[in-house]
Structures are given as structure tokens and as C-alpha cells.
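Weekly puzzle thread! Below is a chain. First person to post its structure in C-alpha cell form gets bragging rights.
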Amino acid sequence: MPFTLGLAQTGYPCDGDVLRQAQTLAARARLRGVELLAFPENFMSPRELSAPELATLAEPLDGPFTQSMATVARTHGLWVVYTMSEVNPAGGPPFNTAVVLSSDGSIRGVYRKTHLYDAHGVRESDRMSAGHSLCAPIRTPFCTLGLGICYDLRFPEVARSLAVGGCDLVLFLAAWHDGPQKPLHWKTLLQARAIENECFVGGVCHGGRRYVRESHVYGPLGEPCATGSGDLLVCSIDPHAVTSARDAMPVLSHRRPDLYT
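Winning reply:
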């Protein structure tokens, strides 16, 4: 059955109230029939934060921020995907963590960003810890969902692992830095991941001025399904199209992992 995906391209709210912003976008999304709503990377941050500020902001996975987001999910009857700064139990820098909540507010999936962006003068490894495993496929009433966070998109193994695991939809939650050819990379890599894995791939970008501020969804044949620079992008997703694409060209079953290192 088709379902409706919403990508909430939120930025830093003027009043710093991230949760109010989430409530507002969730209410709008529900009015447009959205069933699964995704927020971008850096979603928890009220503004640009230094490494010490990010560490201070961090909370346990089941802390007040997640409890508030669970209220958003329950209030509007939505499955919700968002990112947060999660306390590292080992005492190091926090994790950049994506969380999936069901419409009853329960945690159904967690993924900690594994590939840290140490490039172009940015060193994420100075401010956050890397996760130790790729996302496990997340079962939802609509589809099987997989997640990556921003820089993960540049590593094709991430989406391939999720596709092999049965994912119909892979979402990349990003704060994709703007710069020479960076918007092109963002679009092209999302489309490539869709084509090579024959699944839906969506990318929701943070709306801050440093970022490309454009979100996209591509279908399992690489066709553009939705693109936009506004704060809410809505798109219909039909998981049957994934089955059809994979039946017609069974790339995943033709793989030769015995030859790959």
C-alpha cells in the first residue's frame, strides 16, 4: 500500500524552541496526510553549537527530549524520525543519533552515525563519537526503513547493507554543507543510491544557512519523486514499486560478495 512521507527541512528556530518547531511541522504534516515524518541532522540543536555546548546538550536516549518527541508523535498520530545528541556512556563525546518513534511514542529504531565528517576544515571527530554498527532494518506499518546520517551517504556500503536487509526506503538525515559542487553531490549521490539498490531514497537537509537547504526523494528506478527547498516536502511512497524494480532487474541477487573485499 502507498503511504505518505514528509521531510521536515527545519532550521535553527528564531526563538530556539526546537520542540515547538517540531509540533508546528507535525501538525502541518498531518493535515497533508503524512504518516512518516523525518527531521534532519542537527535537529536537536537550537543554534550552531561548539563542542562543549554540544556535549552539554546531550541526553540519554530515553531522556526528556525523546519523551517530548514521543508526545509529538502521539499527538499527531505520526511515525517520527529525528536526530539528537546522545550521551556517550563511555564518557567520550556524544553520539550523533537518529531515533525512530512509532505513533504511540515508543522507540522502534536507533542508529548512531558511523562515518564522521573530517574534511574541508571540519572535524566532527573532535565533537562527537562514531557509532559502531550500521543501522538495522526497521519494520514499520508502511515499509522496511533504513537510516544514514549525512556523510554516510558517500559510503555506498551503507545503503547496500540496508537494501540487502530488505529496506524499501532509506532516509539520510543531513546537514549537508554548501560549497563548490556540494548541491550536485547531494542530489547525485541520493539518486545513485536509489538506482543501485532499487529502493526509495530520501534526503532531508537542515535549513541553516551553511547548508544546501534542499531535500529530495528518488524512486527505485532513480526517478525524481519530490524535491524542494521549503520546510515541508511531502511525497507518496509505494513499496510495491521496489518489488517490481527488483523483480525486473534482480541486482541484489546477482551480487558476487565472494569476490568483494
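Puzzle host: Confirmed. Bonus trivia for everyone else. The chain has six helices and 14 strands.
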